[in-house]
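Bench log, entry 3. Co-assembly request; chain sequences pasted below exactly as received.
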Amino acid sequence: MEGLTLSDAEQKYYSDLFSYCDIESTKKVVVNGRVLELFRAAQLPNDVVLQIMELCGATRLGYFGRSQFYIALKLVAVAQSGFPLRVESINTVKDLPLPRFVASKNEQESRHAASYSSDSENQGSYSGVIPPPPGRGQVKKGSVTHDTVQPRTSADAQEPASPVVSPQQSPPTSPHTWRKHSRHPSGGNSERPLAGSGPFWSPFGEAQSGSSAGDAVWSGHSPPPPQENWVSFADTPPTSTLLTMHPASVQDQTTVRTVASATTAIEIRRQSSSYDDPWKITDEQRQYYVNQFKTIQPDLNGFIPGSAAKEFFTKSKLPILELSHIWELSDFDKDGALTLDEFCAAFHLVVARKNGYDLPEKLPESLMPKLIDLEDSADVGDQPGEVGYSGSPAEAPPSKSPSMPSLNQTWPELNQSSEQWETFSERSSSSQTLTQFDSNIAPADPDTAIVHPVPIRMTPSKIHMQEMELKRTGSADGYSSSDSFTSDPEQIGSNVTRQRSHSGTSPDNTAPPPPPPRPQPSHSRSSSLDMNRTFTVTTGQQQAGVVAHPPAVPPRPQPSQAPGPAVHRPVDADGLMTHTSTSPQQIPEQPNFADFSQFEVFAASNVNEEQDDEAEKHPEVLTVEKASDPASSLRVAKTDSKTEEKTAASAPANVSKGTTPLAPPPKPVRRRLKSEDELRPEVDEHTQKTGVLAAVLASQPSIPRSIGKDKKAIQASIRRNKETNTVLARLNSELQQQLKDVLEERISLEVQLEQLRPFSHL
Amino acid sequence: MAKNYPLYIRSTPTENELKFHYMVHTSLDVVDEKISAMGKALVDQRELYLGLLYPTEDYKVYGYVTNSKVKFVMVVDSSNTALRDNEIRSMFRKLHNSYTDVMCNPFYNPGDRIQSRAFDNMVTSMMIQVC
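Structure output for the full assembly:
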């Protein structure tokens, strides 16, 4: 290879280009792809490019070493100047302008050409080459005007290999536009990159025809080209083309996915190659995605089922494997359906992929559903709707909306919390998660300072209470209602207040306030005295039913104890110390626990019907409790209060067992028949576990909400959810084990009974 | 039985793939036997975990079957100072979760080989953690 003498400017320029192409940082060998792009950007006919490559020895060697690269560049300059390509022309041609490459590089080169000797400018240009060009615009300013005049080989626009055409045409016609760009902040560039990719679906055939129309737009879009140019030369023109297309064809978005899109995909440049944030969705793109979403699913708050999404994205002609990966990335909540944000993310990824961008391994931050939500301008307006849809399209809104406004009125902090709550629910983006958090809140920790969980819980508890009330009125249980009415309303009230204090956590952060004044802050929602009475009654009745406090039995331990232990209960993660004092605690705990366990069950099963389910569940729980009543009453009749406590203590466990597998009542009965000693340690465990779970779950929703940090919150909540899952699974397995043990005992007992029976007959 | 083809096979660095294939296939018989022995169709996740299938030749095989009769078989070296049962269970649980995630993907046809990158990553991480 002949020795290559380069001037300083050339040397610098070439080395910059080399390092640009040297994406693997080998410093020795340049990637062929990049080099080819570069050469294509030089707007030379293909055969010339091939000839150059041959001459410089790359084809011989198979790669582009530094010297080959430099030689090639020199040859490009030679070719662009119109000189015949010869090996000797490398050194013979003096004062050769630097090789010109498309658009941005063009400016540089033209500038070089214009002021070949002015090194300072070159320096400036060099500085503009490699680093992302914040100053690009300004640098180009002067040269742009020159550029437009530069003769450009107008390669075929249709030719994918050199998609330089239309932009080439446009700059000459609107030289002034360049100047406009320079004023655009480069920060805005980051948005542009994918701007054009939005409408890339629209037939690219329009591109060429619309290039003239795009001229005006070209101005608006040139900042991105400069920026991207330095990244990949050949891409600028198509970018600008597409960008020009974009506004022009915004209305034509419906003429989407044609086979032309395949060609556009090739031609569509790596607009997303912006350094700042390639994954950001611009407003135009987002609008486009939303429109597409609407064609599939008119309800913006609804889901696109997997099959529909599959069809839609298959039209993009990407390989199934890639589509599969895109789905994995974008289906954030793994529910098999795409929400609007997930859909936008998926669409965006498809677009990027068609542009040649590799799919990321993880979903980029800007595509995460929650962030997209928050970025939405219509955030405030959307949120209530989003709450509705994220909760559950069908049932959540009615149940939630009444509670939400009332809560907003009651607690000022809910104003911000509601947004966070909605954001959070948005994040969860699935009523399933929502439900779980409902359940988490159910055994709400009054000591948490978090307000947000409260609103959710209020609704279910309210429903629960209403159900209980219905039950009470419907079923004339003599032992229950009247007695509970008469027996110490204050205590019941205190229990109620305590219970409500669980729900109305926010004001009740202080530990043990005196019981009677408690209700005011806590049940602000049910401010009327009637509700108080209702709660009183229902709670009392339920308590009576479940705990089996017959009229004869002295009422639950002192009200003074009630608030105290109540407050302690959630904190009592290590276990309920005193069983005597636990019974009143467990009474309020039971509905909570019942809610919670029910939610667990349904969270695992059904996504969209929590509201209905919990409503259904409440009566079921009550029936279970009711069924246990006769047994408990029997037992109570026979045993002392100690047993009652145990039964009370075991009631939650039984309720859990009863509800979790929805076992029939006999199980609790059998439990009670067992020896008390056996029961007690088991019950201890259960209550302990439930206490632990309650604490764990109660703390869960508070933390993400309070932090308000979207991503971390999600991750934290995911972690906690997983922990909860494992804990619950363990509990489940242990309960199952105990169930089996109990069954075995039962069988053995029955066998013994059988054995004894013949003797009795004798 | 034409339907017992593997959807996914992954082995640790020591790539005796064929040997593992063979072991997995033989263990399938044991799995089937356990399934049929279970009798009533209990949908309990605990029963899905089949436990140690059989320890032979200094490796252990663990089985796990999903509700849809998709079987997970894990073969571990006995030299791997015994992984606790809980760990195996959690690994199977993770496998199951990842598998359901793969299933959720509408582009995945049940019966295809699993090509999900997330699934691969999860499996790799698990294997690294073990070995």
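The interface with chain A takes residues 44-46, 90, 93, 100-102, 104-108, 115-118, 121 of chain B (CB under 8 Å). Residues 16-129 of chain B form a domain with the Beta-Lactamase fold (CATH 3.30.450.70).
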